[in-house]
Amino acid sequence: MKVIAVIGICLCIVTMSGFSVEACTTMLVGKDASVDGSTMVTHTCDGNYDARVRVIPGQDFEEGAMAPVYKDLCHDSIPGKEMKQAGEIPQVKHTSTYFNVGYPFMNEHQVIIGEDTFSGRDECFNDQGLMMIEMLQVFALQRAKTAREAIQVMGELAEKYGYGDGGETLTIVDGNEAWMFDIIGPGPFWTPDSGKSGAVWAAVRIPDDHVSMASNRSRIGTLDLNNPDYYMASANVVSFAEEMEWYNKEKDGEFLFWKAYNPDPYGAPYYQRRREWRVLSLLAPSLNLDPYLDPEKEQYPFSVKPDKKVSVQDLMTINRDYYEGTEFDLTKGLAAGPFACPNRYPTPKDVKPEYAKDTDWERAISIFRCSYSFVAQARNWLPPAIGGVLWFGEDAPHSTCYIPVYSGVLEMPRPFSSGSRSYYDKESAWWAFDFVSNFADLKFSYMIQDIKTVQQELEGQFFAMQPGIEAGALKLYEEDPQKAKVFLTNYTKNMAMLTLARWRALADELIYKYNDGYVNGKQVGYPTEWLETVDYGKTNVVPAK
């Protein structure tokens, strides 16, 4: 068996270019852990992904219809990486309306999905698998009305048709439950006619009064499959690990999914765990978690009870975090420059100092290369068209504005549903937010205050309007659900375009306010501490003879 594993590694090194590890962060909140009884889920999509939000209407199909299956759906807006049809599967009689983006995230039934990549063992990759993670999300959103159903749809399709992607985590909510779902491939020797499962997967429901998160490492451990209310898994979840000699019950004791399938997360030593520590510490500071936890000896808890009930605004704040006020604060130190910029760009190994070849900058939750992020809530006391609201932000979380997008929305405005990250498009909403984010890096400590002012102005307005908007939508829904959907569509489109117009105006304001390094035409220079650190003025001192 060890020989097979070694061969598998070699094959996978050749074939693994099919998936990305640009990385994301996602959070889950149970309904009894939130301030209003909603379940919540977040996602920061941290890489070059399709940021266009498009509503794909539900359809009815004739008996015998087939559904196309695509590769590279999440990169479709990137030239040269357009989606390609890889096959097809039998279509269902009716599909639900869903929202398509890099990683499709919501349907009309307020089933909402977040995502992050953990990659997992190379030996699990299989290039014959038909299903990529984003395609599983499409089918789940088209065919499921609950989070539990979504997991069952994805699990069954991946097992039958094969999973051809890297290890992935999905966080899934409906109005009642919050689940974490991990999936990985069946190894290079699986074929569609092998008679074996084409995927290995597991899912855990978090307690209703708990919160959880994932950041590029599998966090599912124990699986009590005798408790189907809280645990689900493929039939091979343990046996495949035993077959590959990654788990031995006598030697290892209790089976842990992450230990079998993702024992060595990619990246620098704390690339994943620092974010685990940060999210859990912000939500449950009383736990006093150790930021330097030794992964060989201990793990952070899979889920925790928060110290206080969690709001949408709390999760937005966490999405925007770069360790402010901690020893890892990215606005501090020489690397932040004179104006406390938290961004740290990827550094190739060949230019790293010898002592730091295998380490990296701290990895924040909010990161400059984010395509989009969201905070979403599902509420079981409202009709799904109204109860599901996803607060969507283009580009980096710290410099974006979150706009409300309801489950019942029928279309998005063109600037939010078109464009590409691969070429500048002044009509695209993404580029308006990306410009403000990039320009702010020039004088971050100043400009982020201007950005926060507009964020608070707009988001505060949206939150203040929310009760009235939803009351009006509910009244219309009782008359005719379609009228409510049209009303919410118009509201979402209007708020999206209002935000875009304000962001374009903000860009103009920043350009003239901070022109040539001045602030409204006044000299501000540099912080004294930074000047001292960089030996300011010493070249003008005559050396002693």
From TrEMBL:
Database matches in Pfam families: Peptidase_C69
EC number(s) per entry: 3.4.-.-
Keywords per UniProt: Dipeptidase, Hydrolase, Protease, Signal
EC category name: hydrolase
Reaction(s) this enzyme catalyzes, per UniProt: an L-aminoacyl-L-amino acid + H2O = 2 an L-alpha-amino acid
MF annotations from Gene Ontology: cysteine-type exopeptidase activity; dipeptidase activity
Domain of life: Bacteria
Signal peptide stretch: 1-23
GO biological process per UniProt: proteolysis
Protein family per UniProt: Belongs to the peptidase C69 family.
PANTHER family associated with the record: LD30995P, SECERNIN
Entry protein name: Dipeptidase
Organism: Vecturithrix granuli
